[in-house]
Fold this protein.
Amino acid sequence: MAVFAFALVGGVLLGPERRAIIVPMSYGVGEDRLVEIACPRARGPITVDGDLGKPAWQSVERSPRFVDMVSGEPALFETRVACQWDDERFYVAYWAEEPQVKATLTKRDSFIWNDNDVELFVAGDDCYYELEINAFGTVYEAFFVWQDALRRGSRFDRPELDLYSRDVDLLGGFQDASRWGKHPRGRRFGFLDFDLAGLETAVRVDGRINDPTTTDRGWTVEIAIPWTGLALLARPDGRSLPPSDGDVWRMDFSRFNQYKEAPPAQDPGGWAWSPHGAWDSHIPEVFPHVRFSTQPVGGPAGAAAR
């Protein structure tokens, strides 16, 4: 478990300078609702082309159907995910049912959550990485560092995380009305021009995108993340790259939609492998535990959740 540079005492956050800030006692679901995922080892390198019908994905156990991010109830359309890894890369696949596949954004690092998208978060100690992809295959990436951890001389004091020269947003600040004052740790800096070196993604649509005259089956997404690209996130807390057998990382797998299930359902439009208990995908404490196994794909430790 990461040890953060603050203490929560009686609803008061005591930061590095021991300044008192009134905060909620908890945020998101409790430990009893978290899931653990076993991620098996790939049987060989995988070509990233968006085709999830190829043998590399046929024997990988998929997640349960995604649930409403807030309530944990089954989501309107089926979404499932699977993962595997080798010494070079971490692989993720999404199957997203969508009767009317739509997308509008084509410029890299557009705010993809304004389209229907799938999302992947990878948590580190005091930081996390976010990746979003729409049905056009347009990518948005960001790297977040908790405000109390980004100090001169700290491990995050690096050119690619320079507050004065990079494209930086503040998540959880006053302008972020949906999150302000909710997470006990407070704000985090989001580096919106961060690009993970070596990232590969691909999308395939089973239907006709942006054509309301047809009924589509949906779309698939395939992702490969080089372990070397995660060094900034993983090295500070001493985790090995690639992971060792039994290593546990925190990751989140989700999907956001502009459409919602009709009332009386209270569909927020955000679905995930496991519930967050809040309309917020940026809660690392509720991310599933991903346990890496050297058992090969199709072996006894398939990528199942409990």
User: Anything to note?
Assistant: Residues 1-25, 301-306 have pLDDT under 50 and may be disordered. Residues 228 and 241 are 7 Å apart (CA to CA). The domain at 32-296 is CATH 2.60.40.1190 (Immunoglobulin-like). The radius of gyration is 19 Å.
